[in-house]
Amino acid sequence: MARTYLTSKGTPVKISHFPGWTRYNYRNLIDRFSDITIKPLPEDLQIITCVDDDSVAYDKSPLIRQLNKNNIPFINAAEHKDVYPWINNKKIELLYNALQKVKTKYCLILDGIDVTINEDLDDIIDIYKTYNKKIVFN
């Protein structure tokens, strides 16, 4: 059975972000999370990520691997774009343009190369609503 990681409030950590060098330091954990089977997303939720699809990063992305393995549709904001050399401020325009394609009521934007989904996201919209805000980060 997969181990569940909990927040300080005792709720499951649904999504993990491993920025910078932590993605190298926690490779075993990232690999374990990226092998998790995920239920389909709620119908009114779309995932957007941003990974250069012509780079090694796309093939190594644990999130892309998870989404593809579980047949979860997503929008890759950098798909078929010339984003080399990568600079982070390109992501703002790419994500803005990708948001114009979203047809669902809710959108979950996730970093591409250093994020894993650790739990099913079937209740993620209910969790979002508890904040009573239009947009929630982290």
Give an overview of the whole structure.
- By secondary structure, the protein is of the alpha/beta class.
- It contains six helices and five strands.
- It has helices at 22-25, 27-34, 56-60, 62-69, 90-99, 124-129, and strands spanning 15-17, 45-49, 74-76, 106-109, 115-117.
- A three-stranded parallel sheet has the order 3-2-4, with helices on one face. A two-stranded antiparallel ribbon has the order 1-5.
- α2 (27-34) runs parallel beside α4.
- The radius of gyration is 15 Å and the shape is globular.
Write down the overall mean pLDDT: 88
Total number of beta strands: 5
Helix content: 25-40%
Radius of gyration: 15 Å
Main sheet attributes: strand count, strand direction, barrel closure: 3 strands, parallel
Dominant shape: globular
Order of helices and strands: EHHEHHEHEEH
- How far do the termini sit from each other? 27 Å
Features:
three-stranded parallel sheet; two-stranded antiparallel sheet; alpha/beta; 30% helix; globular; 5 strands; 138 residues
